[in-house]
Design goal:
Largest sheet: 6 strands, mixed
Helix content: 40-55%
CATH superfamily of the largest domain: Metalloenzyme, LuxS/M16 peptidase-like
CATH architecture of the largest domain: 2-Layer Sandwich
Oligomer: single chain
CATH class of the largest domain: Alpha Beta
Low-confidence stretches: 212-224
Number of domains: 2
Distance between the termini: 55 Å
Number of helices: 16
Shape: globular
Length: 421
C-alpha cells in the first residue's frame, strides 16, 4: 500500500486535519498536540500527563464513564499517551461508527470538566504511578541518564512529574493549562481508514465547529521560549550511580546530537546506530556479545526529541568488564571515523528501514500515528513519508562525516550504574 496519499486540510481556527482512505475495515482518529512536559515550568511539572488522565473524566455533555461505555458498546478502543514533546489521544473503531464516536473523542479533548472531586481522586492515581515508576530500576536509570544528557533543557524533567509538585497542583491551574495549550492551532487531527477522504474531513471538521477559544487565558511556556540546544560535551564527563536493586551493571555512554530542528542531521546517526547494534551481525553485538562475551546485552540508539537528540550506547555487563567495554565501544566509533562503512552494511540497514516502514504502517492506527507525529513535531508529515528515501540517500561519506562531527571519542557523557559492593 502506498504511503503517499494523505490529504492535508487546514481550518480557519488553525487546526490541521490529515485524512487518508485505505481499504482496511477500521478508522483511526489520532489527535496530536504540541503539549508535553517540555512546556511546563518546574512548579507545574507533571501537569500535561495529569491532564491526559483528566480528559477522560467527562465533559458537560458526557458524564463520567459515558465515553468509555459508548466506545466499548461499539467494539472500539481508545487510549492516550504523554511524552516530553507531545500528547496524543486516539480511538479506533469500525467505519460505520466513526461519525458517532469522533465527536465524542473531540469533545473530551476540548471540553473536559476538570471538577475538584475527580481531580483529587485522579491525583491519587498519578501519585501511585509516580511511586511505581520510582520502584522500577529501568525507569530510574532512564531518568538519571536523560538528566545527565540535558542539564538545562526541560527534557530533564520527568513526564510524570514528582510527587511533591503533583500533591500541590489545583484543578484551577489545570483549567488554565488546558485553556492555554489545548488550542486548535496547536493540534493535528488525523483520520485514516475505510471511509472517503471527504467524509473523514467533514466529520472531523463538524466535530470541531462547536469549539470556542479560551479568551484571555494565561499563556504557559511554549516551544518558542525554550532554551537553546544543549552544547556538546567538551570532555569526558562521568557519573557513577549505586542502585541497590540492580542485578547487573549498566554502562551508558551518550553524546548530545541534533534534534528534529535539524532533521537532516538525524538520518546518518540513525544509520550509525543500526550499523553498531541492529541485529546479531551488527558491529557491537557481534564483537562484544557474541565473540568476546564481555556483555550480556548492548544497544545503540539515536533518540530524537524536538529540540535535542541523544546518541547513546547502553550495555549490560559484569562490573569487572566496564573499563574494557567502554574502550572497545570507543574503538568501534573511532574505526567509523577512520574507515568508511561498507556498502554492504549500508544496504543492510536500508533494507531493514524500508521493511519496517512498509510493514509497520499497514494499519490505520500506525499510519495515523506516523502522520500525526511528524506533522506535530516537524510541521510537515512528508518527513515521515520520505524517511526511507532519506535513509537511501545517505552514503558512506556522509556517515563518516556525521560520526566525526557528532561522536568524538574524547568528549561524551558516561554513566555507570551498579549494585552496592
Amino acid at each position: 500500500m502506498s504511503l503517499n496519499s494523505p490529504t492535508v486540510h487546514k481550518l480557519t481556527n488553525g487546526l490541521t486535519i490529515i485524512a487518508e482512505s485505505i481499504p482496511v475495515e477500521a478508522v483511526n482518529l489520532s489527535i496530536w498536540l504540541n503539549v508535553g512536559s517540555r512546556v511546563e515550568s518546574d512548579s507545574i511539572n507533571g501537569m500535561a500527563h495529569f491532564l491526559e488522565h483528566m480528559i477522560f473524566k467527562g465533559t458537560p455533555r458526557l458524564g463520567l464513564g459515558e465515553f468509555e461505555k459508548r466506545v466499548e458498546t461499539r467494539g472500539a478502543i481508545t487510549n492516550a499517551a504523554t511524552s516530553q514533546d507531545y500528547t496524543n489521544y486516539y480511538i479506533t473503531t469500525a467505519p460505520q461508527y466513526f461519525a458517532e464516536l469522533c465527536p465524542l473523542q473531540i469533545d473530551l479533548v476540548l471540553n473536559p470538566t476538570i471538577n475538584p472531586q475527580d481531580f483529587d481522586q485522579e491525583r491519587l492515581v498519578i501519585l501511585e504511578e509516580i511511586a511505581r515508576s520510582a520502584d522500577n530500576v529501568q525507569r530510574r536509570i532512564s531518568q538519571q541518564s536523560i538528566e545527565m544528557a540535558c542539564e538545562t533543557l526541560p527534557y530533564r524533567r520527568p513526564v510524570l512529574g514528582n510527587s511533591q509538585v503533583i500533591a500541590g497542583l489545583t484543578n484551577q491551574q489545570m483549567r488554565y493549562f488546558h485553556a492555554s495549550n489545548y488550542r486548535p492551532a496547536a493540534m493535528t487531527a488525523v483520520a485514516v481508514g475505510n471511509l472517503p477522504v471527504r467524509d473523514l474531513i467533514d466529520i472531523v471538521t463538524e466535530s470541531f465547529n462547536t469549539y470556542s477559544s479560551h479568551e484571555g487565558a494565561t499563556q504557559f511556556a511554549t516551544a518558542d521560549s525554550l532554551p537553546p540546544q544543549e552544547a556538546p560535551f567538551v570532555k569526558v564527563v562521568r557519573q557513577d550511580v549505586v542502585d541497590p536493586e540492580l542485578q547487573q551493571t549498566r554502562l551508558i555512554m551518550m553524546w548530545r546530537v541534533p534534534g528534529m530542528t535539524e532533521l537532516a542531521a538525524t538520518y546518518p546517526l540513525d544509520i550509525v546506530a543500526a550499523v553498531l547494534s541492529q541485529g546479531r551481525t551488527s558491529r557491537l553485538v557481534r564483537d562484544l556479545r557474541e565473540e568476546r562475551q564481555l556483555v550480556t546485552g548492548i544497544g545503540a540508539s539515536n533518540s530524537t526529541y524536538a529540540w535535542q537528540g541523544i546518541f547513546g550506547v547502553t550495555a549490560q555487563l559484569p562490573t569487572a568488564n566496564l573499563k574494557e567495554v567502554e574502550k572497545r565501544i570507543l574503538d568501534h566509533i573511532e574505526l567509523l571515523q577512520q574507515q568508511k562503512i561498507s556498502l554492504e552494511e549500508i544496504d543492510r540497514v536500508r533494507r531493514q528501514v524500508a521493511s519496517r516502514h512498509i510493514f509497520g504502517n499497514e494499519t490505520p492506527s500506525a499510519r495515523a500515528s506516523m502522520y500525526g507525529y511528524y506533522q506535530a513535531m516537524c510541521g510537515d508529515l512528508s518527513a515521515g513519508i520520505d524517511y526511507p528515501a532519506k535513509i537511501q540517500s545517505i552514503d558512506a561519506d556522509m556517515l563518516q562525516a556525521a560520526v566525526r562531527q557528532y561522536l568524538p571519542i574524547n568528549a561524551y557523557g558516561v554513566m555507570t550504574v551498579r549494585s552496592p559492593d
